[in-house]
Amino acid sequence: MPRTSCPPAYRLHKARNVAVVTINGKNHYLGRYGSPESHEKYAQFIAEWKRNGQQLLPSSSPTKALEEQPLLIDELILIYFRFAQSYYVKHGKPTSEQDNIRQALRFVRQLYGSTPAKDFGPKALKNVRQAMIDASRCRRLINKDAHRIRGMFRWAVEEELLPVEVHRQLVCVRGLRKGRSSAKETDPVRPVPEAHIEAVLPQLSPPVATMVQLQHLCGARPQEVVNLRPCEVVVEGDVWLYYPHSHKTEHFDRDKVIVLGPKAQQVLRPWLDRDPAAYCFVPAEATAWQRRRSRRKVVKDGSATKNVAGVTRTAKRKPGVRYTRHSYCNAVRRACKRAGVPAWSPRQLRHTRATLIRKTYGIEAAKAVLGHTETKITEIYAERDLGLAVKVMREIG
């Protein structure tokens, strides 16, 4: 039967003459019916049931016998992922972290699925890490996955499923260092040369070209550009303010504002003349532009298209209501191929703007524009000005 939001009832078990509550098909006996102690235990069960998505964790029942089998890794992964499915959600949709956790725990389950969770120690984590290396995962991703694995054990300690010593031991495992392991390395994200940006723009549809120009000017993240709507832009004064309704750090209870200067305003202005709640950049407009450019004519029933040679082609799937960061990136990469320049992704535009601001105005200015809370994060995006170092050392070195 489907679950309901109504909590299980406090009842009298006539055969035993005690209070009982049935949760997920299992009876939990609470003591003498009507006693304050039984009502207290019932309240504890219901609080736990609500907090864990209408279920109880293995150790939640006070009637669990000590001689029962210990919690296995397989069982821990199952109940933790149920928690992750309800926790890593944004605006009613699962975030990418759910899949990241699934991929990380896959290695743990393959090697230690039948092992008691309390016996998973530093050596086990290192063995899992080695399995990731053998699977050709890069060093940075392995370190992130190891952090996700430790996160599962930290959650288990919070829920009193495991002793705190289990997590403390795993924290002692240091991350892989560059050049000191056999894990493969990936190239860092670099700024896009201005010449490559200019070469790609003519190959893009108007919506995508506008997104590239806007992101290049304001240093926003790709997701913040594709989600832009007129109702979120305050068009007042010589500087406009864009307040994204969704952004990367909103779960930290932080506000995000993106400042749009005169150049960004000029690029964005034509795309604000639409329904305030609609997205500014719509794939359907890019599709229509591509059809006009290729001189295709749409058949009346809309099921196919014809080019000037009269060749009928089946229409592609219906365009979405907005771009995603993946479709935005794919459009840019295809344009790079047509322009004959090395492929780059929209997220590199944020690095390009950060580097220019740091070179001209300093690291604190770059930090303010990007919306970072710590300077060390900005340093990842904004490359150091090698030319300034050369100039200084030419004079004093």
Give the termini distance in whole angstroms: 78 Å
Average of pLDDT: 83
> What kind of oligomer do you see?
single chain
Enumerate the strands of the largest sheet in spatial order, edge to edge or round the barrel. 1-2-3
Estimate the helix proportion, in percent: 40-55%
Low-confidence stretches: 60-67, 297-312
Secondary-structure-derived class:
mainly alpha
N-to-C SSE string, H for helix and E for strand: EEEHHEEHHHHHHHEEEHHEEEHHHHH
Largest sheet: 3 strands, antiparallel
- Beta-sheet strand percentage? 5-15%
Radius of gyration: 28 Å
Give the beta-strand count.
Answer: 11
Shape: globular
Number of alpha- plus pi-helical segments? 16
Gist?
With 397 residues, this protein is mainly α.
How would the blueprint of this fold be written?
Blueprint: E1 11-13, E2 18-23, E3 26-32, H1 36-51, H2 73-87, E4 89-90, E5 93-94, H3 96-112, H4 122-134, H5 139-158, H6 164-171, H7 194-200, H8 206-218, H9 222-226, E6 233-234, E7 240-242, E8 258-260, H10 262-268, H11 283-293, E9 297-298, E10 304-306, E11 312-314, H12 325-339, H13 347-361, H14 363-370, H15 375-381, H16 386-396
Antiparallel strand pairs: 1-2, 2-3, 4-5, 6-7, 7-8, 9-10, 10-11
Helix pairs in contact: 2-3, 3-4, 3-5, 4-5, 5-6, 8-10, 8-13, 13-14, 14-15
